[in-house]
Description:
This protein is of the alpha/beta class. It has helices spanning 12-16, 29-41, 56-65, 92-98, 100-108, 121-140, 155-166; strands spanning 2-7, 49-53, 73-76, 148-153, 184-189, 196-201, 204-205. The protein has one domain: Phosphoglycerate mutase-like (Rossmann fold, 3-Layer(aba) Sandwich), CATH 3.40.50.
Amino acid sequence: MELHLIRHGETNWNKERRVQGQSESHLTDLGIQQAKELGQRIKHLAFDKIYCSSSLRTRQTAEYAFPESTTEISYLDELREIFLGPWEGHLYEDIAQREPDSHRHFWEQPHLFQVDGAESFFELQQRAIDAVTNIEATHRTSPASGRKVAIVSHGALIKSYLCHVEGRSMDQLWAPPRMHNCAHSIVAFSESDGSTNILQYADEPIFKE
């Protein structure tokens, strides 16, 4: 099975450097353009199923990336971004002044990030792993022609899952490549040996020696 992981397009809160988390923001004109361009890049791919975070920005991205698709889209709360509770809606620069240690942990030491009322990155990663495991199990017994699946989700969630696949520790969560808006990553699940491999990371092909 091939799993195609897609981050949403630019939002108004991305542009403002405002904390989104699970709060709602919407695509900017650039975000709409990014989603449309992504759709053109992947229009040759025939997806058998599309899963999408239930957030507005991911639903909009799916709408513009797959405008003529007849593939069923399932919207899942489990694919929403990291829940940041009291931070959501605030500017990152204000948080950096108000809570410098937590802000530094978020961006530089994610394994130490812990804010009351918010998810940790470990909790986010486990939610992502559980969601992908359930999706993979659903399609494992499908015919070979039914095993190309897309997930439209969020930067931190996708990063946390790929961190797991790579076997990286959480302190390496934000290591390159950067998960830019509408970044497209591909993970392959091997039926023969049960392995999981990253074929493409944020539009960059991964070459195994």
